[in-house]
Known about the structure:
The protein has 25 helices and 16 strands. The protein is mainly alpha-helical. The radius of gyration is 34 Å and the shape is flat.
Amino acid sequence: MMPPLDPRTRRVVSPFAGTELCPLFGFALPLDVTGPYFDEDRWPFDAVIGLPAYLRPNQRALDFTPIVNREWRLTAKEYIAALMAPRHDAVRDLAHAERTVQTLTTCHGKLSELIRWFKWLTEQGITDLDQVTNYHCTAYVDFRAVKLGDGGEVVADSPSTRAVAMGAAIGLAQYKELFSGQKLRDDLHPFDGASAAGASGRSAELGGANKVQPLASEVQQPLLAAVLYMIQTMAPHILREAEAKRKRQAADRRITATTHPGHGAFLRTLERRVESGEPLELMTPAAVKDARVRGLREENDLLAAVSLSALARECGTRQFRGDWLPDLRADLERTVALVGVCAPYGRHAAEVERADGQGHVAWTEPLFSNELKFLVGYLATACGLALAALAGMRHCELGELIVGCRQPPQETAPGLFRYRLTCKLIKGQPLGGVRDEWVVSREVYEAIEVVEQLLGPAAAPGTSLFHPVFCDTTYQNFRTWVNGSAGQRLGLAPIPEGAVTPRALRRTLAVEIAYRPGGLLAAKLQLKHLSVVTTEGYAARPGGAQAKFLAEINELEEERNIGILTDVYRDYQRGIIPSGPGARDLISLFTSVDGRLHELSELAPQLVDNDLEVVSMLSARARTLHLGTANYCWFIDPAKALCLRLAGTPDADRPLAGMCDSVRCPQATHHPCHRPVWEESRQTAKVFIGSLSRRQKTERARLEVSVARAERVLAEINQAAAGAAGKDTI
């Protein structure tokens, strides 16, 4: 008896059969290159012009061979092709198909999840996608999202992983009309038609907020201090040794002789060493151990650790032969006794100031070739961290920086320079990106210069500076060096554990600029300077990557301002009223807010959420808040701003914080959080007064006025705090 025919209608031939994929996906190839083709089971895109530099080699190809079931493999290929070619005739009419082109990175991730899902289905005994039910979809998501500990307990349940796992089933259901091979049943609607983000809880987890958390200050400060110390203090010495290594290796490659240079050549070289006091070269511990294992050196041999090969190359021959040693042993032992042996690099290390300011030390102890190589890698990592931490560049933008990206500094005023980098904007752009430009600080500009020098003079313009882009492994190696004996000898503060990524560094910089614009970033970097640089970058290219970074900062500033104003309002409710020339206007605002809340509570007490209503009514005033070092500036009316009147720029749209005199400005207020600044100002002025001589009457009078002003502000702040304390005791 013949088996029943499959009632499902299937295309005999795939709509993509025989298609060359690069023209279909809009990828550009060199003239003499073709392929890949849809019918192949592996699609390599290494030759595509304009691929992002940050893509790893395995991400530059889509490999379907791990899918054992050949019909499922065809379904996966059709699905991925449809995602990358949404305008194809067979795709554009599908009701639920994606309308935007999915990137190679996105499709690589989706394919990886499909491979996992198909493998899991096979393990469950599923042989045809028609057998998949809602139970299988839900069970797979639970299997993927839950991470178990050693004891079998649940230690993690990630909404993000759930969303990715759900996307595999939902995606195949959306494109089932396209597939010519196996497909999900027509009546199957995974997760009852809900979206992956909504059903997984990922949308609720994010809540519209940025999920990336800034670095803790305990990690950020020692990290940036180490990064800047490497670039500003260590880099010149590392670069000098790296150049010496390049020259030495080039000279060694030019040696072609393999014959004995003669006993006299060795003697002359050894005498030269003795006269200059230059030690013979030391072999690495691993090489010494290998020589002993092979029986080439004895345990107690005085020459056991001497690199005879290095000595031979110095004499002009490629290798040292063992039968030369008996004739030279006496001279070699005499030389070792007089000058010793030492690693080849960093022998005459100059002294540098320790990072903690506790004296000076040699910048390095003698280094072997591989140790110098690692040190060069640590310096390159430090430069990448500097760009991410001080410019806010994304991972993909770091990967697009090339030799020659530094533009000549532009002198905007005597002694003031604007530094620019040219790169590419990748995120949200077509393949190949678009030309972009960053305005950066001097520290970032110097970091790029260091990386270019690390690549050496042979690096042609257009060579990638960060390839591969620094990752967790390179950062952990850098952290291990900082926390190790070498970093501690240099006085570097240990860096605590914590994930450090370009995303986290970008987020940290945005938060620092938004919440502490008048303060200091780690290692005495002016945040205001970095904020100005970011703003200038936006002005230079309003649609560029720096504009997106400035938008993140502005969003954080709005959150900060609303939070500060809400706290000031809550203080007012507790009896801590603001002081300063602008206090009356602020108190009037709070009084009106109280009245409005009272009216709303009488009209509909069950509908009033005080916190939400307060934020709503204070939002307009929050947008006028600018943080001063010792005051809050409510920049409501530019005509009333004392700083603008003094500067002669009454039409400016921002206050001039450097010219602020909050004691006289009608838009400035003082609060308890400003008390330490005024107290420090008073104490500093008193110390200076005590150090003045009797003849310095003018300076004494000026400082006494400063003390009196600080004391008046402190008295007003104390009076407000005393009023709150009295209210609490009633």
